[in-house]
C-alpha cells in the first residue's frame, strides 16, 4: 500500500488531497431491523481476518506522512448505512464486499430471520458500517 500511496503522491498536484476510506478499527458493522422510527439491533458482524489489513493500512498512511509525501489534513469518523428490503439480500450484500468479508456471529443469521418474521409490513434491514476517513494533502 505504501507503493500505491507514493505513486498517488507523484500524480497529485501540490495542494491536492487524497482521501483514504477504511473500516473503523473498533466499531463493527451492525445489522438492525428498522420499522418506522424504531431500530431493533439484530447482530454485530464479525471481521476477524480483516484486522491485519487494517493495521497495514494504518501503518502505510503513517509512513507516507512521516516520509513527507503527504501531510495529514484531517481524520474523521463517519457512518454508512445500507437498507435492504428482505433477508435474502443480505447474502448478496456480503458477497459484494471485497474479501475478507464480515460474517454473522453464531446464531446471528437465525436471529435475523426470526426478527424479520415478527417485523411489521414495511420494515427494512439496515446495515451500518463505521468508517474512518483520512485526508492527506500533497
Q: What's the alpha carbon Rg, rounded to whole Å?
A: 18 Å
Poorly predicted parts: none
The tally of helices reads 4
Helix content: 25-40%
What's the order of the H and E elements?
HEEEHEHHE
Overall average residue pLDDT: 91
The secondary structure category is alpha+beta
Tell me, briefly, the overall form. Answer: elongated
Report the count of strand segments.
Answer: 5
Can you describe this structure?
The chain has 138 residues and is an alpha+beta fold. It has one domain. 33% of the residues lie in helices and 35% in strands. It is built from four helices and five strands, in the order H-E-E-E-H-E-H-H-E. Strands 1, 2, 3, 4 and 5 form a five-stranded antiparallel sheet that branches. The radius of gyration is 18 Å and the shape is elongated. It starts with a helix and ends with a strand.
Quick summary of this structure?
This protein has 138 residues and is an alpha+beta fold.
Key words describing this protein structure:
138 residues, alpha+beta, 5-stranded antiparallel beta sheet, 4 helices, elongated
Q: Any chance you could write out the topology, listing elements then pairs?
A:
Elements: H1 2-11, E1 17-23, E2 30-35, E3 38-44, H2 51-67, E4 71-84, H3 88-95, H4 108-118, E5 124-137
Antiparallel strand pairs: 1-5, 2-3, 2-5, 4-5
Amino acid at each position: 500500500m505504501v507503493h500505491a500511496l507514493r505513486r498517488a503522491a507523484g500524480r497529485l498536484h501540490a495542494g491536492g488531497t487524497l482521501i483514504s476510506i477504511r473500516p473503523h478499527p473498533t466499531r463493527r458493522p451492525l445489522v438492525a431491523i428498522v420499522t418506522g422510527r424504531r431500530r431493533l439491533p439484530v447482530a454485530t458482524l464479525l471481521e476477524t481476518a480483516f484486522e491485519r489489513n487494517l493495521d497495514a493500512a494504518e501503518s502505510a498512511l503513517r509512513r507516507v506522512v512521516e516520509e513527507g509525501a503527504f501531510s495529514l489534513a484531517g481524520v474523521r469518523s463517519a457512518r454508512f448505512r445500507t437498507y435492504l428490503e428482505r433477508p435474502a439480500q443480505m447474502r448478496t450484500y456480503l458477497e459484494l464486499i471485497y474479501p475478507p468479508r464480515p460474517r454473522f456471529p453464531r446464531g446471528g443469521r437465525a436471529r435475523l430471520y426470526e426478527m424479520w418474521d415478527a417485523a411489521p409490513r414495511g420494515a427494512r434491514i439496515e446495515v451500518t458500517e463505521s468508517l474512518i476517513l483520512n485526508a492527506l494533502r500533497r
